[in-house]
Fold these 3 entries.
Entry 1:
Amino acid sequence: MTYDKLIEIRPILEKQKLKRAIRDLGENFHLHHVHKVPHLTLVYNFRPRVPELEIMERVRDVARDFQTLPYEYDGWELKQSLTGHVLAFRIRPSPELKDFRAQMYAAIRSQIESAPGRLQFNEASSDNFWFHAAVAFKMGPSETSRLGPEVEGLRRIYLPSEAWRIPLLGNGKIVYEYDILMDKILTRSQALSRYFLSQDLDKYRKRNYIEVDSRAHVTSGGPKTWLISDTHFGHGNIISHCARPFLDAAEMDRILVNNWNNTVSSEDTTFCLGDVVWSGRVPGPDALERTRSVMNQLNGKIVIIRGNHDPSGLGEEGGFMERGGIKFELRHDPKNRSDSGAWLIHGDKHNNSLRQFPFISQKNRTVNVCAEVVRYRPLDVDVLVRLISEGRDFATLPQLEEAARIHDGAQVYSRPGQGGYGSRIHQTPRFQPRSIVRRRGTAVVDTPDGVLVVAGKRGIFLLPGGGARRHESRMDAAIRELREETGLITKRCKFLFSYDDPEDGRKIRNLHKVFLVEATGRPRRRSHESRYIGYWRPGSNLRLSISTRLLIERYLAWKAHLQA
């Protein structure tokens, strides 16, 4: 039996972008062993001691405690391995990703046997584990010597990302894959299905506020001015070139139009800094007609600053504007900047050079308003002025303290869970996201020994239960979670009362429905969430969470009233 199993992170949005970079490196430097499929290994070669599905269930149980697992591609590094040098994209993991890998490995450690020589990597601490996406491996001295000054260009690569597909591989192929967004363990055919990818992209866009709801439309405060560049309507290849979260060009165009019209009113003016539509090899007159056809679908007055893909006769080469005491120059390509001394607002660079051309660079006095950088919708120029006045750099449109923060009447959305991490290299402060509201089904199991409670590794006891899945009632969630956490089977379930956690800034705010459950079986530890099982009664010294204590007190009051 071979040690052919691995657990990895499978890049989704940036997959083709990384594959193209890996292919170019292999060809340019004549590298013999290059990875055809980019990945981030979390657990190295092992063989399972239990069925593979049980291992993935442990991975799932740990991942459920994390709202998101962000990380950054940040340059490259060359390291010595057991079989030669490895050239890899450097990964800067977030604290969440580091904690997840450590907890996940601890959860499956007894279920696997690591290959000789790999145990040291699997056992590495969170701070010592090498997070990387390999480009080439088994590199000898002749290959490493060919990595001349040209490869230094890789150091400019900087791309924020996040994990949502975690596969278990056998012999290089997906066996099972846990999908964080859908909270589902996928088979190989499901993992490779465009249908499930489409479902994921929809959830990803909604969770990260990439799709603007019509309720976000701001109509008060009079006419406003907006900025955006490089929408590339109709350009399917831009999706892989710039890691855009769309399945195809039709879906991208639909969401770009909706985002625009749900942000910009008919009285507003939007400056579009080039490359509105991908014309390809379409003749000039037809390309111009296609661009105007797209513009006719968009709200407000549109001022075009012509880009390199726009047809001749469309828009101007550049322009100037002033807002909030700041003078701005508008150009598509930043290399065409004049010597006026004004701040430069530009497009063209997309998210391909975020170190050199981030969203805001105070040193260079530049602003990148490409669609990928400003979340696929026009940016309010008053918001831009406000952010510039903070005196900080931002890699992309920054994360704000709330899911929606108002700047002079314009809504700017945050990305929950990532909280500015993606802009850390550019000295952006890390903001805390607004509390995530969760519908929780909570079970009260009253036994002769006391009320059943469970605790994870921190030793803080909670009532069994958890968040309800989509289309799942909170009663069903309470029954399911009780079985998953303790193995108990519900015989009867009675609704007691509702309770909402207070709005006190906590990371997850639960909206409880509490049920009295009569169950069969013997409670036993089933997951990291139920590492400890206890029974609480008045006078018990168990450490309860604040909400759990309040819920039990309310239940006991209900019970006393019933018995009176």
Entry 2:
Amino acid sequence: MSTLEHGREAYAERRWPDAVGQYTAADHDAELPASDLEQLATSVILTGRASEGVDILARAHLKYLADGDYPAAARCAFWTGMNLILLGEPARSTGWLGRAHRIVEDLPEPCPVEGLLFVPAGLGALYQGDGAAAAEAFTRAADLGRERGDADTAALGTLGLGQAKIMLGQLDDGLALLDEAMVAVTVGEISPVPAGIIYCAVIETCHLAFDLHRAHEWTRALDRWCVAQQNLVAFSGQCQMHRAELYRLHGAWTEAIDAAKTAQDLALRGDRMATYGGFYEQGEIHRLRGDFDAAEAAYLHAQETGFPPHPGLALLRLAQGKPDQAQSLLRQAMDGAAPDYRRRMLAARVEIELAAGDARAARAAMEELASLCASIDMPLLHALAEQSEASVLFHEGDPQAALVLVRRAWSRWLSLDAPFEAARCRALLASLCAALGDEESARLERAAARAVFSELGAAPALSGLELSALEQSVSVAPDARTAPLPTSGNDFGHAADAGPLTARETEVIQLVSAGLSNRDIAAELFISEKTVARHLSNIFTKLGLTSRAAATAYAYRHGLV
């Protein structure tokens, strides 16, 4: 087998460094055919050397022109322009995209890749928050891709249309389109670079849509896709930043830091799109742990990418005792944000406005957040909205109404396996119980919150809990002591210990039945091994079992696997 044939084989098997080496050696002997040059360029880009890859892609473009293959030449021009956008070279990018347009326009017959030319306009509209214009451009791209038989174009257009519909509030339609785009990726219809783009964009959009279930599913799929390819750098950093976000939510903060640092390393090696998320997620963990100097440094590194590190930096200012600065920062960030990014900052806005003393602004943000629940029916969003409304009602002097909402939010956070937010609800519940005169329930809820904060190492939350307890011990109104509570704090604390298996416990028992170790289960679900052990203990207790083998047998008997 010749060196060139070895290169083609390595490319087909996604062994990118081997493909680069073999193709490069073959190119030294004789100039590669245009299609092989294009594959060499792709291999170089995927190993993190995008600048070199762009130069090779330009060579492939010229070779296609010389061969008279104008559609392929237009495709190379388009991807050269798109890669230059990612490299931060907009002028060169504009030139290459213009060249792609000219080639297509000059062709006497319809061009298979014409739909690709609508993608940049769609992306520009998305970044500007113009969902309607984005939907129009991406619809054209998807339609042309299907008409001309170009799977990459059809999938990218479908992806963009899904993102646009979600921006416009058409959640179900948008998510269905994202799933459709992912089907094309998972069955192998899509080229490697568009496939990576679709994976990462779908996961990001799922987070913006508060769809934690899909974010989990597609992050696991992206992780497997990255691992299956030799020394893949492009998209691997973005995978790690998404893993870090999920680890953070599930209280696996050490694992979140590790994933964030891996994302930063891969960003330095070439996956530039992982820079922001890698540093932002690191900043979040440092902030939650009380290492404010390290958090500030991480947020500022994230900001160097051109994207504002909010709400994290604003919440850091609040934790530093600077509510006015926090308020100013977040208001500025939200004023210029696209609708989908604005939604992600509303809960922090409520917290910060309350701390800054602007109850009207806090209520307005809370009502905006609550109104989203009508069109975005996601447990994560409902939990944020209920927790925010409870805080506002408490501030307005209605602890009884707040109590009902915070209990709902607590239950949702538990079902989402989000221990920090669940503990924050219990801290708020302690304050509500104290305000209503139920000191024993307040003590129990405070102790439960303290245990979680201590285990996580959430020093600022722990300090705030103790300060709140001190303030409440001298400020409970005498006439509030007879106010009735819907349920006791003790019932609230033990609600999670009763009943059938939760959704997360079901996932754990299914993975145990598949033979996975605790470590493997933790990696699959983006939780810590300690959390896996706790879930297993709950499963054994609820089902009266004593071993993994017994749990496996139970799962098979009851149709869980």
Entry 3:
Amino acid sequence: MRRIVSAQCEVAIVGSGFTASLLARVLAVLGYDVVMLERGAHPRFAIGESTTPLANLSLERLATRYGLADCHRLATHGRWLAHHPEVRRGLKRGFTFYRHHPGESFADRGVESERLLVAASPDDALADTHWLRADVDHHFVRQAVAAGVDYRDRVELTGAEVKSDGVRLRGMRAGEPLELHAGFVVDASGPGGFLARQLSIPSDLDRTETRSALVFGHFDGARLMADEAPGLPSGPYPDDWAAVHHLLDEGWMYSLRFDHGVTSAGFLVTPRGLASLQLEGADASTLWRALLQRYPTVGRLFAGATPLMPIAFSPLVQHRLTRASGARWALMPHAFAFVDPLFSTGIAWGLRAVERLALAFEAVASTRRTPELPLLARYESALTAEADQIDLVVAGAYEAMAHFDLFAAQAMLYFATVSFAELRQRLMPEESAAWNGFLGVGDPVLEPLPHESLRRLRRITHGRGDAGSARERAEFAAWMASAIEPRNVVGLADPARRNLYPVDLDTLIDRHALLGLSRAELMESLPRLRGLGPEPAFARG
């Protein structure tokens, strides 16, 4: 008979992606006995690679509060290169969008081109990054182990029993039965995760509006858009060093370039778009080639690119559950819900959840050692509202892809929301920032806008991709500009910009009152915005 390997811990974390490893490490710093269980082994491939300023703010807060020096250094491209060059990444200066049309090369019409650039940083040193997840996740696992986390890979969990005093997990490792009794379990294993199956948590996918399939891979030798459209006027940053979005009739394509020349790319295709291709039952490579052939400029970008892995296909990327926490368990965001990679919300939302659960454990570290039920209920309520909000913003963007003018206007909703949140957190830091609603949730001005925007867009597109009239598009753009005005601290929705938006401190200073600051107070806070000053002291870890 095989020996059963039995153990106990205060917290078990299922999965070992970046949210799992960071939470495990923070809990170890707080003195918890943590076991992290991984089905596979590192390094391993993963997608979900593009960060944003809000993600970097979460990293910086985790670094300062829990003594995680590397998190602070990984929060900007410049600090990353200086301290962790061995962990591969890509420079992300902002968000770039191009609208393509079937059978036509991208129309280079100068400032009249169907092109939108929104800067997220003033220079390369302060820029965001694309994470090569194989390297980044492995880095965070190693740091968790160094902090005292008991990490076990190649574990196949087969059962979970939630009791009043904890959770009993069962599984296999290296051919031996494994049994683990944990006071609390966090599931960070991803869509359709372990706890969702074991606890029979119902799907809530019907609640969501967005639907898309994904065909994707990593490629060597992809060309730059600057090579295909060299006559485009200069923007606030080089177009390709960004999260590049190619907007199509069938959906959109992302292209994320890493500093060592590899490009992560994928097509997100709507059900209507997939049906229009008439490739039912085709494999991933056939679908990839068909989309490249349909859009000549995109096709030339990847004509000579070599896949570094078999091109993969997921028929539906969305998922959603009805629950996110219970008395002895909690789900990380990606295990609870996922909408779409449009606007790069995944990493930022995941890190916000790490902060929230860390604070919940910190609050009881000297007493009961498991989070209080009211705080877990608050966590679930926040994730539920935020998943709804992300879905509405993205669903509106898919409707708006019917015409570039509609999309450019809809994008202003996202950028107004995140820039307002970022500036408030940077200029007026507060202890409760982790519990602030994500993507405008809780903001009386911003929270209602995604729903209203989607309603107005569907009235134009009729839900079937109609582009509407020039008057309808102009009215929608005017409504959006007016709706975001109370939170528009960076000068968005300005026709004079010709869809090229730099980091503009002069506009920010002029609009100081929208942040609730006097001009003098804003000027005094600007060094925090520019990232000036010495590195914080990291006493804890």
